[in-house]
Amino acid sequence: MSSDENPNTVRSSIWHEDAEPDNPFAARTAYCRGYDVYGEMLGQARWAEMLYLLFMPDPPTPAQTELLESLALALANPGPREPSVHAAMCGGVCGSTAASSLMAALAVGAGQLGGAREVYSAASGWASCGTNLAAWQGWLANTSELANGIWPAPEHPPGFDPHGLGTATPVRQTLACLAGYGAGPRLPWLQQYLPEMEAAAGRPLSLSGVAAAALADLEFNPEQSEMLYLLLRLPGAAAHALEQRALGYKKFPFGVVDLESATEEQTA
Asked: Whole-prediction pTM value?
C-alpha cells in the first residue's frame, strides 16, 4: 500500500459508489461490476442477473439466467419436513425474532446431510471429475478423503440420498428442466449417465446433487455454490417461520419424549 492510500478504504471489485454532493454517507450512484444499478439495471435487469453479477465478473448469458431462475425456484422452499426449514419453524412458533429464525435455518442447513456443505463437496466433485465417468466412479468410492480439520468425512456420497431407494420424482423433474437449458455440459451429462452415477454411489440422486451440477454449469466454484445454496433456500424457511408463529405452539408438532420408557430401557 502506498503512503497516500487511505487505510480505511474498502476495496471491492464488485461494488463502487459515488457519494451525494451534500451527504458523504449516501450514494448518488452505485455500480455493480461497472453497471449502474439504479440508473441502468433497475427496471431492466432480472433478479437472477443481479444475483449472478454479484458473484461473477461478467453478466450471465440468457441460458444461464434461465437456469439460475429455475434453480432458485426449485430450491426456494425445501418444505416443512426439511431440517433447516423445521429449525426456522421452531424459532417462529416460539416467538423468536426474524433474524433468529433465519439464523437457525442457516445453521441447520449448513451441514452434510442435504445441506450447503454437501453441495460444496458435490461441486468439488464436478471440479475434479468433470464429465468423466471413470473419474466419478473413483471419486464416489473414496469420499472418506473429503474429511478436513473442520468437517468429518461424509456418511454418504455427496449429492445422493442416503434414505431413498429410487430417485425422487421432483429430483427427476428438476434435472430434466435444468438440463434442458443447455447452459453447460454437466446437467445434460448427469441426466444421460444417471443410472451409472447412482450405481457408483449406491444411492439415488438428491436435489442437492442436481443443485451442485447446476451451479457448476453456471461456472460458480465450490465456495460460491455453498453460499448460494444457503441463500436460495431461505425464502421457504422465512415463510414457514411466519406461518407457525401465527398458528402458535399448541398446533406445532414438537417431538414427544417418553421419559418413563427411556428410564426402563436404561435400567433393564
From this structure: 0.89
Do 40 and 78 belong together in one domain?
no
pLDDT exceeds cutoff 50 at 1: no
pLDDT of 178-197, one tens digit each? Answer: 999 999 999 999 999 999 99
> Is residue 35 domain-shared with residue 139, that is, in the same domain?
no
Q: What residue numbers bound the domain in which 38 lies? A: 15-44
Residues 38 and 75 in one domain: no
53-90 burial, b if ≥16 CB within 10 A, otherwise e? Answer: bebbeebbeeebbbbbbbbbebbebbebebebbbbbbb
Which residue in this structure is represented by grid cell 443481479? 50
- Examine residue 227 and state whether it is found in any structural domain, yes or no: yes
Question: d(Cα 236, Cα 252) in Å, to the nearest integer?
Answer: 17
